[in-house]
Amino acid sequence: MQKDSATLIVDVLRLAKLNKYYRVGTHSLHVLRDIELEVADGEFVAIMGASGSGKSTLLNILGILDDYDSGEYWLGDTVIRNLTERKSANYRNRFIGFVFQSFNLLPFKTALENVALPLYYQGITRRKRNQIAAQYLERVGLRDWAEHTPSEMSGGQKQRVAIARALIAKPRLILADEPTGALDSETSKQIMDLLSEIHRSGITVLVVTHDQEVAARTQRTIRLKDGKVMSPHDLLASTSHAGMTVAT
Amino acid sequence: MLQIVGILVGLAALAAAGFLAFTLLRVVGVMIVQWRDLVSIDRWSEVLDTIRRNKLRTALTMISVAWGIFVLVFLLGLGHGLDNGLRQSFKGEATNAIRISANKTSIPHNGYDIGRRITFENRDYDRAKPTKLPGPDGQGIDHISGQFFIRGGQFGGGEMLTKRNGKANAFQINAVQPDAFYLTTYTIAAGRFLDYADVAQRRKSAVIGQPVVDYLFHDENPLGEWITVAGVPFQVVGVFKNEGNAERERQIYIPVSTAQLAYNGVDHLGMLEFTVGDADAIQAKAITDVVVGQLAERHQFDPTDRQAVRVFNNVEQFERFKKIFWLISTFVIVIGTCTLLAGVVGVSNIMMIAVKERTKEIGVRKALGATPTSIIAMIIQESVFLTGLAGLLGLVGGVALLELASRGIDNEFIRNPSVDLRVGVAATLGLVIAGALAGFFPARAAARVNPIHALRDQ
Questions:
Q1: Which of A219, B5, B146, B441 has the most beta carbons within 10 angstroms of its beta carbon?
Q2: Whole-angstrom Cα distance, residue B293 to residue A125?
Q3: Beta carbons of A86 and B371 less than 8 Å apart
Q4: A102 vs B458: CB contact, 8 Å cut-off?
Q5: ipTM of the complex
């Protein structure tokens, strides 16, 4: 949605020599190793990797839910480092929209209230945010489901509500963690259609997935292995993956 | 050894108080930052939502607090009733009054045998009057009266036949100095009390109680009218009242000098009575000893002779009662507070479980941009609301039971058991604070929820 610098290629996020360790007892686990990553404004990127490759950790760091040990993480023109809880909450609220595998909707709230929740934390009045939430529900095709609670909805519908919630604060970046992981192939396709549409509207979308088909729908795939980003060279050297696209 | 324990207990109390103050300040700080939420329909609907989702748990939590407040209020009310009952026995009496009445010796002294009757005189009154303890602001006698007992009437039993217009009845007659007024809690309903001109001029003035008016005068105005006391006419100059104890109103006050003249009293006195200002029990005893010493010297009796003069020391009595009141109220507060504390710990405990259950929800909220402060405020608000509502129920229950009890119980020990508005306000305020404290630890636990872990567990 931010199209003010159309001629310049602006990075939404940039990681430089980013390292992350987990301390397990006396051992230190090197989870992310010198990650270099640039995502331009308006890109649609998939992050793939086997379990244990560090992709969840990477997503948590990108979502400012976790800290890193060294290197730099630029979100827009801000270095995300040692933020206060209050600041990081604010960044999460305004710059990042989350979509989770298990939807993470609040079960006791209606679809409309779930979508409106991020605006509650911006201090927007109930009336106004419900109005906006209704628009976003309509955008994901669930206008008639506004007053239903998640338990009355199908998985695909829940994920649509979650996507509407991720969009409502007009973030620059959508972080989707296995968004189709809990859905059948037909519904997965619909959700990916929706994410593509969001991407076309100008929002940067990052999808973490282990599904080849999902990754194929994006513009670029970044592969993680043992905490490292694999270069195109590495990829060619390794056993070839059918249908894989590498865009730079 | 005991001192060390005392110091340790003191330090522990200080640390606890400091911790409580700190926690409260934090909570208040959060509330100030989030003040909008306190009046926001959104926040309240969130709180009510949570409560509605866990009806049984909410009910159990509330019962523990309601019970605590119920017990506290009921005990406080009962304590208040006990206090009322004890104070009632002092109604009509100044609590700083001391009376010394003349009696018979029981110890041989200076060659005098035992059984000698002591009689005070006007000179004893004059001598006792300026008594003051040494020191720049030593306590002393501030009001004093000498009382003459007509025809050797005993203290408390000097009833005389009083007549007017063919009506006659026996009333207690007190022949006193004007300052005797200060030994009572009387109020003047009409006219005035005796004054020094009455005494100096030996006027036949009388101040009578309301029942005397009712009996002798009915609806007539008694002021200026004459009554006959033991054959001597007196003119009514005033009417007094004694709130709360009408028994003491069946009395008539006349000037001591007039009585001494009219009833062959010479300059004899049966009793000295005085008040001692703000003196405490020890000072009151010292003042009494000075006066008794003067009397012993003049009337040649052993100052340690408990029978020669009899001392009635209200200060000592009242101080003893006050100590009992204090013990009772401390006991009540300790028991009530402990019960309440148990309730508050219960709330805290259950809120802690609630936070554990809501880990995922809190994680989602944080991922969507909830600040730790807003999470803390949400939990604390819920806690304060629960505690406050439960406490209010307990308060109402306790007051209702007291109301019932006050109809059933009304004897000389317990009178009008009730709690006043201040206790209600203090209890409510205390509950809000207790609720905030109960919510603090669960709230902090909630604020520390790591969204990564929260979102991971399914």
A1: B146
A2: 84
A3: yes
A4: yes
A5: 0.86
